[in-house]
Amino acid sequence: MNILLDLFLTFAKIGLFTFGGGYAMISLIEHACVERKLWITHDEMMNVTVIAESTPGPIAINCATYVGYKQKGLAGAIAATVGMVLPSFCIIFLISMFLDGFLEIAWITHAFMGIRIAVGILILDAAVKMIGKMPKKPIPLTIMACSFLAMLLTDVFALHVSSITLMLIAAVVSLALFMLNGNTGKAGAAK
Amino acid sequence: MICFDLFIGFLKVGLFAFGGAYGAIPLIRDVVLSYGWIGEDTLTALIAVSESTPGPIMVNLATYLGSLQAGFPGALIATAAVVLPSFIIVLVIMVLLKKLLKHPYVQAVLRGLKPCIIGIILATGLFMILRHCFVSVRDLSADTTAILMTAGLSAVYFGSGKVLKKKLSPIGLIGISAAAGVIVYGLV
After folding, report:
1. Alpha-carbon distance A166 to A20, whole Å?
2. Is residue B86 domain-resident?
3. Nearest to B16 among A146, A167, A174 (CB)
4. Chain B residues whose beta carbon lies within 8 Å of the beta carbon of residue A82
5. Average pLDDT of chain A?
6. What was the ipTM of the complex prediction?
7. Do B29 and B38 meet the contact criterion of CB atoms below 8 Å apart?
8. B73 domain residue, yes or no
9. Is residue B44 part of a domain?
């Protein structure tokens, strides 16, 4: 089969059958691209995961772009990425046309009143899992606590501090600390 | 112009959303609420639908909001905008800057970003729950039904890991919470 078509179809299948977003997809991508198609090695897959986690954007898109480019350059990257996005794009577009009328039905409103609590719990759970994997050192913990407080106060008092602003501040602070430590050449600079 | 706003708004989301879908939800919330596209309740419904349909959650949310705001062109523009930054960044890293991510300065920036994102996600999750449990977060007038629902659903979600040795999947929790919502709010 034409490799571009193969890339497109493989990633379309992954996009169509994975629920739950990025991390759930990594195992499917690994299965399809490493074990079945032999497009990349297991080590490369680990690399992709690191790149996906350290670059912004949906993790599945990062993976698709990487594997596609590896196989067939820019055309491959486009085929894989479009394949990844297309199934959910069609599904969501169809749903969105009916959503308004849908949300006016009483029992569906009730269902969503339950669901919105579940969404809060899922977000909290994701944060707790990330805290578990985070290095427990003074600097990261302080940054986390500060951004947590800043964001919570912003929400509660409806202030206008964007989370992007917080992220930029954290990046600058972390870089500045690193450069200061690096200049004095003391331990604690690395890692 | 709405399509331009959608493009810029979701470009920001795609460019700053580290750490997967949950890292993106606070950002999407920020962008969506600041443009005033939809209210917080519709957004929660969108998040739930995006979670329960296949595909990357961030992409689903973008398609969804774009479509609600400006039909098919809106859906196309928002989806392209959310995908574009990661597509370009991965290509640039692969083609030109294979060692970029290992550079100490880049590592230092990433080390600062990660805990900051965790704090933001934690605050967002907590605020979303508090918002439903207290009619107004500032004067703390409680909504008992919502508090009981929160307690019950947390018990089911976190308890399932202990009792069944396998934690309920997010879709499972959404299903149960929907059923609980229909029953509880239908009767109240």
Report:
1. 27
2. yes
3. A167
4. none
5. 81
6. 0.75
7. no
8. yes
9. yes
